[in-house]
Amino acid sequence: MSARAATFWDWALAAYARPGVPDACLSLQDDHGQQTAYLLWAAWAAPGDAVLATGAELARHWELTILGPLRQSRRALKPALPPVDDTARLALREEVKAVELAAERLLMESLEALAGPASSEARASDFLSRAAATWGDPPPPEALETLARALA
Length: 152
Hints:
Elements: H1 8-16, H2 21-30, H3 36-45, H4 49-76, H5 86-114, H6 124-135, H7 141-151
Helix pairs in contact: 2-7, 3-5, 3-6, 4-5, 4-6, 6-7
């Protein structure tokens, strides 16, 4: 990883468009309790341990109080909820989805503000592993390697 040319948001959008990245991120989030914006930020920013810990604290708070409840609400609005009108329910779901995305972007911009210069020889897999360990209860190494390979 060398000097960063794009904002973290732009980099993350491009990374998420790569084959395998969405599935790896969703697996890490849903199956292993990881916060994917934080993991992606660690791969992008290559932060030192103190900054990594500060980012984990920020992301953990944001996940618990903002993103998690929004995600839960969006998912709860996916199936039919009789007698609620389907068109109105789906429209509300799209509004919640837009707010969830805005919250994710604000977290990413806040994490970006914590980042210093990128390490010149940083490997995404190293920082994904360190970030997952800092987050707590790290997933199996192969789950992180799947994301690292998709990001490469």
